[in-house]
Amino acid sequence: MYVWPCAVVLAQYLWFHRRRLPGKAVLEIGAGVSLPGILAAKCGAEVILSDSSELPHCLEICHQSCQMNNLPWVHVIGLTWGHISQDLLALPPQDIILASDVFFEPEDFEDILSTVYFLMQRNPKVQVWSTYQVRSADWSLEALLYKWDMKCVHIPLESFDADKDDIAESALPGRHTVEMLVIFAKDSL
Questions:
Q1: Cα atoms found within 13 Å of the Cα of residue 73, Cβ hemisphere only
Q2: Contact yes or no for 19/89 (Cβ under 8 A)
Q3: Residue 6 buriedness (CB in 10 A; 0-12 / 13-18 / 19+)
Q4: How far apart are CA 151 and CA 184, in angstroms?
Q5: What would the pLDDT profile of 17-44 be if each residue is shown by its tens digit?
Q6: Contact at 8 Å (CB) between 114 and 120?
Q7: Contacts of 141 by beta carbon, 8 Å cutoff, 6+ apart
Q8: Which DSSP category does 186 fall into?
Q9: pLDDT band, residue 5 (cuts 50/70/90)
Q10: Predicted pLDDT of residue 141
């Protein structure tokens, strides 16, 4: 399985903050091969992996990652961004939402943030730890974050020992870079 650089950078951030993870409720959205979620589970977090309910092969990859890492207690659910489903309604409040390179297509940004907003209603202190590949200077989350009453803080990769030359800028199409941000509700600070 190929692991995207964004997932590696997010996993590094998790490892840097591993002492904060035991007992935390963690949801990974758009999990794919689930590297960040698997690492969070190995560090003691109570993890739920999710990918689109419309892509059963993605959910199967999440299940395979759990099996390969001997994590039978990690739950895998189908969540389609922007849709209210039984699985979304049944989710307990989360402490951390992991989102590795989910901000890929601008037409998905609002669906992602509306799903996160729904989850923030259950725990206003939840944080979204997200990495993304910079693809276009024209794509911005700022207006949508404002619309959904959220803010974000950009996290310098060097602040958590990520080697920007070896991961964040390596072998990405067009020599794009990976960025890290934490999203939270405006009123949570």
A1: 8
A2: no
A3: buried
A4: 6
A5: 999 999 999 999 999 889 999 999 999 9
A6: no
A7: 103, 109, 113, 152
A8: G
A9: confident
A10: 84
